[in-house]
Design brief:
Radius of gyration of chain B: 20 Å
Helix content of chain A: over 70%
Distance between the termini of chain A: 54 Å
Largest sheet of chain B: none
Distance between the termini of chain B: 45 Å
Largest sheet of chain A: none
Number of helices of chain B: 7
Structural class of chain A: mainly alpha
Oligomer: heterodimer
Number of strands of chain B: 0
Order of helices and strands of chain B: HHHHHHH
Chain lengths: ~190, ~180
């Protein structure tokens, strides 16, 4: 499929429509729609954008869409992607707003909520598996993964603090590598 | 000036909710308590509804709050405001990345951020798993897991299968 603004908008309209059960589901959907079906980006790009999207303010689904849109067609692509992503969400809520309270009480809706909640878990697991192969590649990256995971699950440390620490660690790592290579030359 | 207020509140959420996922919720509850745009009960309903409507919960609540306070125009303003900070920040970072992507420090930062991002994502997954697990939930999860080991399926298949299972189970088993 050719990369133009119309196709970016319609692709992200589809991504936005499939985006059920919270923002993180965008990751497996982008893997399926943009990496596998359209070959617009690769898993490596997606891994980088996921890491960056979690490192900055804003909704993760919005950040990811804008990163991918920018990669495809610069600023215009970014705007096409985010518009496409939020259009289905917008339309759906405007239609549902008035009947929200009745809808939530319906038994079959409750059943669907419950089921989709479980489906989302498996999608997140699959997304983590893909991202894992691209990000955890040696002892150092495994160490970073493990520490961030533990601090986040056990101590509930805010993502912002973990991300800032990771950035500092990345800079220190480079300093260390530079010093070591200089030491080797002398 | 309700439009300006909507813009300020949701721009604020877009700018300060950090880490994605449910980071927006404390802000949304704060609005429920301080403004009369929606009640806490409506917000709880909204969060549940947003799991079966398209889009992230932050966008869904923004549209809902805008619509209930001031109709279509309000909903457009609130929805745009919540993603506007992302648009500005991501475009700036993308431009900087293009410029500095061969810088060794930037490479080292991204090299470290990737596994950190993966760790954060894994933590979100584990927390969600622990939050809404029941016996039937674990059985359904294991079935979907086995399915995923055999064949690579479209995300829609998992959502569809699990929605149908939930639909059937809620009539067969009152506990779900």
């Amino acid at each position: 499929m050719e990369i133009n603004l119309y196709n970016i908008y319609t692709t992200f309209f589809k991504v936005g429509t499939l985006l059920l059960g919270g923002g993180y589901v965008i990751l497996p959907i982008l893997q399926s729609e943009l990496v596998e079906k359209r070959n617009w980006i690769d898993n490596d790009d997606l891994c980088e954008y996921t890491a960056l999207s979690q490192s900055i303010p804003g909704l993760i689904a919005a950040n990811l869409s804008i990163f991918v849109g920018y990669k495809l067609k610069r600023t215009a692509g970014a705007l096409a992607a985010i518009s496409g992503m939020i259009t289905p969400a917008f339309l759906c809520i405007v239609i549902l707003a008035k009947i929200l309270e009745e809808v939530i009480k319906l038994k079959f809706i409750q059943g669907i909520f419950w089921g989709v909640g479980i489906g989302v878990l498996i999608l997140i697991y699959l997304a983590i598996k893909e991202i894992w192969h691209k990000s955890v590649i040696d002892k150092y990256t495994f160490f970073v993964f493990f520490i961030v995971f533990l601090l986040s699950v056990l101590l509930k440390i805010s993502p912002a603090i973990l991300v800032i620490s990771a950035i500092i660690l990345g800079i220190l790592r480079r300093f260390y590598l530079v010093r070591r290579s200089k030491g080797g030359v002398e | 000036m309700i439009y300006l207020e909507l813009f300020m509140e949701f721009f604020h959420i877009g700018l300060f909710s950090f880490g994605g996922g449910y980071a927006t919720l404390p802000f949304l509850f704060h609005i429920a308590e301080t403004k009369d745009w929606y009640t806490t009960k409506q917000l709880t309903d909204m969060i549940a509804v947003s799991s079966i409507t398209p889009g992230p919960v932050g966008v869904n609540v923004a549209t809902f709050a805008g619509y209930t306070t001031s109709g279509i125009l309000g909903s457009i303003i609130a929805t745009t405001s919540v993603v506007l900070p992302s648009i500005i920040i991501v475009i700036i970072i993308s431009k900087l990345l293009e410029q500095f992507k061969h810088n060794e420090y930037v490479k080292s930062i991204i090299y470290t951020l990737k596994p950190a991002g993966c760790g954060l994502l894994a933590a979100v997954g584990v927390n969600m798993f622990l939050n809404d697990m029941s016996l039937y939930g674990i059985i359904l999860f294991i079935l979907l897991f086995i399915l995923s080991c055999f064949k690579k399926l479209d995300p829609l298949v998992y959502l569809g299968v699990s929605a149908i299972c939930g639909l059937v189970l809620c009539y067969l088993l009152p506990v779900v």
